Amino acid sequence: MDLILKVTVFHTLALIVLLSVEPVVCLSHGKWARGKKTTSRGNEDLVTGLPGQPDVDFRHYAGFVTVNETNGRDLFYWFYEATTQADEKPLVLWLNGGPGCSSVGYGATQEIGPFIVDTNGNGLKDNPYSWNTKANMLFLESPIGVGFSYSNTTSDYNDLGDDFTANDAYIFLHKWFLKFPSYRTRTFFIAGESYAGKYVPELAELIHDKNEDPSLHINLQGVLLGNPETSDAEDWRGLVDYAWSHAVISDETHRIISENCDFNGNDTWSNNDCSQAVDEVLKQYKEIDIYSLYTSTCIGNSADSEGRSLQVMMKRTTNMMPRIMGGYDPCLDEYAKAFYNRPDVQKALHVSDGRQLKNWSICNMKIFHEWSDSKTSVLPIYKKLIAAGLRIWVYSGDTDGRVPVLSTRYSLSSLGLPITKAWRPWYHQKEVSGWFQEYEGLMFATFRGAGHAVPCFKPSNSLAFFAAFLLGEPLPTSRQR
Q1: Which residue in 183, 239, 190, 184 sits closest to 214, CA to CA?
Q2: Among 168, 400, 411, 462, the one annotated catalytic
Q3: How does DSSP classify residue 104?
C-alpha cells in the first residue's frame, strides 16, 4: 500500500469519528443573519481588518486546515459567504491550476472574488460581479507548496501529483466541514480553470466514489470547467491548429507538425522535426500573450520571472506530455504578489504574526517543473460523472491560445456524446455572448472575445453564466433576455 493510500485510509477512518463530534455554537453577524445563531468552529478564522478592504455585509474567513497531522501538512483557504441568504445558497469550491498556481492569487483576487487586488498591491477594490453574489465561495491553495499551503515534512513535496492533490483536497473538505458544519449537507459544486481541468474531475470522481459510505457523503451536484486541460493529445492538437488558424504560425510550420507529430504517442518529442516545429509555435507565442491573443502584455518592471506574461515554458519527458504554464496577466500577477507579501495582510489572513512572514508567490515554479503524476486524459472520468448524473458545464474563452476552444472541442468530440440541442448563440445584455451546444449529459459554451481567464474579460457575462449553471437553467437564446 503506497503512502497516499495509507494516508487516505487513515484519514477516512479518522473522519468518521470526527464528523460525529458536537459542534460549538457561535453567534453570527451581518445584515442577512437577523440575529440567528450558527454552528461553526471557523470563527477563529474570521477575517477582520484586512488592509484596503471595501465595506461589505458578508463574512469571510481565511486560515489553514491540517490534512495530515503526522507530517504537518496544512492547506490554506479563503472562504466568502454569499452576499445574501448565505444559509440557503450552495457552496462552490474554486481551483486554479498551473500546476503550482494559487487559487487565491488568481480566482479570488483577480477573477471571481468580491475583492480585486488594486494597482501595485496597495489595496483591494470591490468586484460588483463577484460570484459570491450567487453562492458561498471557497478558494483553496492546493497542493502544498502553492501560495501559503505547506508541509513540515520535506519528503511530501516529492510525492506531488494529480492523485496526491485530489486526496489532500478531499481530506481538506471533510476537515473544513468540521469548522463549518452547516455546509456539510449543502448543495456543492466544484469549479476551476486551466490545469484545474484535471484537478476538478479527479476530485469529483473521488467524492463520487467515497459517497458510497453515507458517513462521508458530500452533496456534489456538478462541475464547471473553464478553458480546461482535458486530454493531452487533443489539447496539443488544438493548440497547434488554433495558432495556425489565427495566423500565429506559418503554413509550413503547421504542415511539419501535421506530418511529424503523433500527439497520441508516448515518444512524441523523439521526432526532431516535430520537436523543432512545436518550438517554433512557442517561440511565436512569446511575442504576444498566449493567454489572450488580442490584448496588450505587461511591459516593464512589473513582470518578472514569476509573471506569466513573459513565460511560455515547456517540459518534455517520456512519462507525460509537455506542460505550459497557464493563466492570464497584464500585470495583476505582480500586484497580487505585492499584496500577499505585506505583513499586515498576512496577519489579517491568519497566515503569520505579521513579523515572521511567509514568502508568497503566485505560482511555484519548482512544482510546475517537477510535476510528474499527470493523467494524460480525464475523459474517462467525464464519462463516469455523466453516468452518475452530475451537471457538467464546460466553457471556453475564444481568444485563448493556451487551452484554445479547438482543444476543448476536439476533446469533447472524442466522447461521442449525442447532441441534444444544436450549436447556437447565447445572449447577455442583448448581445451575442458566445455560442453553445448541449450534449447528452454535458453542455459546452464559448465566450466571445474572452481569453484564458474568462471572468477577467467578461465579468458580467461570466456571472450570468455561473448563475445559470447553479440553477441548471438554459442560457438565453434571444436578445430579449
Answers
A1: 184
A2: 400
A3: I
452 is catalytic: yes
pLDDT, position 267? 85
pLDDT digits (tens, 9 = 90+) for 439-461: 999 999 999 999 999 999 999 99
Quote the cell numbers at residue 124.
483591494
Q: Which of 194, 231, 411, 462 is catalytic?
A: 194
CA-closest candidate to residue 404, choices 459, 450, 466, 458: 450
Of 174, 292, 452, 462, the catalytic one is: 452
What is the SS3 assignment for 79? strand
10 Å CB burial of residue 2 (0-12, 13-18, 19+) is exposed
**Is 254 among the catalytic positions?**
no
194 assigned to active site:
yes
Q: What residues contact residue 144 under an 8 Å CB cut-off, 6+ apart? A: 73, 74, 75, 150, 151, 156, 157, 160, 168
Q: What is the residue-wise DSSP string for 192-214?
A: EETTHHHHHHHHHHHHHHHTTSG
Domain boundaries, the chain: 1-232+324-481
Q: Long-range CB contacts (< 8 A, 24+ apart) of 25-30?
A: 28/59, 29/59, 30/57, 30/58, 30/59, 30/81, 30/86
Transcribe 414-444 into DSSP letters. Answer: TTTPPEEEEEEEEEETTEEEEEEEEETTEEE
Name the CATH architecture for the domain at 1-232+324-481. Answer: 3-Layer(aba) Sandwich (3.40)
Determine the 3-state secondary structure of 369 from DSSP.
Answer: helix
Tell me the whole-structure pTM to 2 decimals.
Answer: 0.87
Nearest by Cα to 176 from 133, 140, 150, 214: 140
185 has a pLDDT exceeding 90: yes
